[in-house]
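Recall from the previous lesson that a structure prediction takes nothing but the amino acid sequence as input. Here we apply that procedure to NADH:ubiquinone oxidoreductase complex assembly factor 2 from Seriola lalandi dorsalis. The sequence below is the only information supplied.
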Amino acid sequence: MSRIAGVLRRMFGIIREHVGTDHLGNKYYIIPEQKTWTGRLVRAKRMVVAANPTEYEYIEGSIPMEWDAWIRGRRKKPPSIEELLKNETYREQIKLKAKEVEEKDLALQAKEYEEGLVATPARTVAKGHAAATSFGKQEITEEPTSTANTFQPGSWMPTSKK
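The prediction returns the following C-alpha cells.
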C-alpha cells in the first residue's frame, strides 16, 4: 500500500480496489485493511457491485461460485479468467454426461417394461392428502344422490341460501 493511497484513504474515507469482473457484469472489490484516524484497525472487506442492483431482479446463480467463494473468504486469491472458463466447460460436460446417462436409463427401463422383466408402475390418482381427515371418504355434495336404501348420514348437506 502506497503512502499516497493511505493519505487519501484517511482524508476522504474508504478507497476500494477493483479486483475483477465476471461474465455477467458484476464487479468485485476489496477494501484493504486500514487504520482509521483514531488509530483503530479495520479489517479488509470484500464486496460485489451487482450488474442489476435491484433486489427483485436478483436471480439465483447470478454470482459465479468461484467469485462467491472469494467473497466469503473460502479462497485467498480471486479466480482467474482461465479458471472460470475451465470450470464452466467442465460443468457443461457434466450436464451432457448426465443427460446421456438419463437417456440410457430411460431406454433400458422401456426395454425392461417391454420384455416383461419389470412390472409397469400402477397409475393411481389420490384425491386430497393422506393426513386430511376426509381422505378416502366420499366428498360431500350439494345434490342429494343417495336413496333410502343407501343413505349415509352426513353424505348430503343442504345448500345455504345466504
